[in-house]
Design brief:
heterotetramer; A: alpha+beta; Ubiquitin-like (UB roll); globular; B: alpha+beta; Aldehyde Oxidoreductase, domain 3; 4-stranded mixed beta sheet; 4-stranded antiparallel beta sheet; Molybdopterin synthase catalytic subunit (chains B, C); EC 2.8.1.12 (chains B, C); Mopterin_biosynth_MoaE (chains B, C); molybdopterin synthase activity (chains B, C)
Chain lengths: 83, 151, 151, 83
């Protein structure tokens, strides 16, 4: 599974992109977030309030209950500020 | 048409070429977004960098464009959005719509900009005399975009 | 700036020059009106002639521009309106507004077009295969313009 | 007093512009309209329904009760269709 971070989340995570292999019971975005928080205190802090974070699964916006699995691309980022 | 690019674009040339030669077009609405040289609190901005999510950006912009064409009878649409480092005064974004009627041109152009502001995965970091700062999303942008959900 | 002229204008060059070099501008909205090659009922239109009231046209456009600048924080405005004989596909009108904020740019551009459609003394006669015909004012244009009275 | 006609009103009137000298009791747009109707059957027809006609006095929109006098420029035209 590929995980991407953008903007200040990328700075917090220290990387823009990483390959992760969570255990089989991680089947949703929400479970993935909890698993990532357990691996990295900086991410635990960044993910403290998930209302501030947007999620995309395979480049479409997704909620915390969205399914994720091997081969998926999951991105975390703050609300967008383009235009 | 969707273009996501680091290079500058020629807004005048884009307008001149847009929907040109299509006799069904009665109105073209165009919005051009530029880098302002100050922030909301008055701090001077010398430059900004636009980060984006390659792949998702194009996918979201294409979806927004398709939705606009579903809602209004459009003859043509164009979205150009830049990324990378931009100086004060630089062009950031251009959105243009062409229709037989001015209402459709105005409304769809506004719709595209409102959605782009809230859905297209771009993030601005401003380079100011007080240091670098990630721009925060505006509540107003969310509510502007939410208006279109009623339609 | 107001320009009422028989000659064509270069929309691309106008956009390129408009509000250029003003670092307080964050958004430019532009509307370009063109001669469509058909009428509402499908009849082909080969050309039209725009008659106007010299003197009153400039006076009314200047008043509309002043009103827009009173209502929105605008950095620049431009209205170009042609008169005389125009062929299908020809440019008729260009309205542009520049502001720090996209809302003000969009709204004021729409306001100017809505008022121009109902207040600026221009009259179109269409030259069609079925003969010449004075275009009738549209109820919709009146109600579009009336919206702004509430503001 | 200068009177101007535009668009199909100009065609009806047969002229775009004329100098007129109405009697002293013609002090409003409404009275001017009645006086012009009396002079010209074509204008009487054109002015049959004044709701279809717009009026400008000295290049500003005006109603039928607006004052007019020597030296004024009064224009009659259909609703505008520019833009």
């Amino acid at each position: 599974m590929k995980v991407l971070y953008f903007a200040w989340l990328r700075t917090k995570a220290g990387v823009g992109e990483e390959e992760v292999a969570p255990p089989a019971e991680v089947t949703t975005v929400g479970a993935l977030v909890e698993w990532l928080k357990g691996r990295d205190p900086a991410l635990a802090e960044a993910f403290a309030d998930m209302r501030l974070i947007r999620v995309a699964v395979n480049q479409d916006y997704a909620g915390l209950d969205h399914c994720v699995g091997t081969g998926d691309e999951v991105a975390f980022f703050p609300p967008v500020t383009g235009g | 048409m969707i273009r996501v690019q680091a290079e500058d674009f020629d807004a005048g040339a884009e307008l001149a070429a847009f929907a040109s030669g299509n006799g069904r077009v009665g109105g073209v609405c165009m919005f051009l977004g530029l880098v302002r040289d100050y922030m909301g609190d008055g701090t001077e901005v010398s430059a900004m960098t636009l980060e984006h999510y390659p792949g998702m950006t194009e996918k979201q912009l294409a979806a927004i464009e398709t939705e606009a064409r579903r809602r209004w009878p459009l003859e043509d649409t164009l979205i150009i959005h830049r990324h990378g480092r931009l100086a004060a005064g630089d062009r950031i974004v251009l959105v243009a719509t062409a229709s037989a009627h001015r209402d459709a041109a105005f409304e769809s152009c506004r719709f595209l900009m409102d959605w782009l502001k809230t859905k297209a995965p771009f993030w601005k970091i401003e380079h100011t005399s007080a240091g670098d700062r990630w721009v925060e999303a505006k509540e107003a942008d969310e509510s502007q975009a939410a208006r279109w959900n009623k339609a």
